[in-house]
């Protein structure tokens, strides 16, 4: 095999690994966000957002769970989530009904499988879509024709 063909094969092989090296983190991030959207956000919407989101006039404990920055900054008790460390995450402790911390949701404990999903989500680094400005309910519905 001529030297130029050998160099071309090596270059293609190297390029393939480079592309793969960049693709794997993106796929992992996409999987994490997909996990969040399918397993975590529905629970937050159903059981948490009433008291801990922009929808509530004054989020309880100063904690909002509807934005990534709010999860990381936390509320009156500190950061709600320590990415990668569920046992150190106040959110996980609260939904696990751990001793010495306010239990959430207060009306009934989440099913064990849901708590396990939250644990997995935090272990994965608590992937959450990038923050965007919350939409106030009064802004909806939008009249497209008048906007033109």
Radius of gyration: 22 Å
Residue windows where pLDDT falls under 50 for at least 5 positions? 17-24, 134-142
Give the mean pLDDT: 80
Structural class: mainly alpha
How much β-strand is present in the residues? under 5%
Largest sheet: none
How are helices and strands ordered from N to C? HHHHH
Number of domains: 1
Number of strands: 0
Number of helices: 5
- Cα-to-Cα separation, first versus last residue: 64 Å
Task: Give the overall form.
Answer: globular
Estimate the helix proportion, in percent.
40-55%
Topology:
Elements: H1 3-48, H2 68-73, H3 90-95, H4 112-123, H5 144-147
Helix pairs in contact: 1-4
3D structure, described in words:
Helix 1 (about 5-50) crosses helix 4. This protein has one domain. The protein has helices spanning about 5-50, 70-75, 90-95, 110-125, 145. It has five helices and no strands. It is about 50% helix and about 0% strand. The protein has about 150 residues and is mostly helical. The termini are far apart.
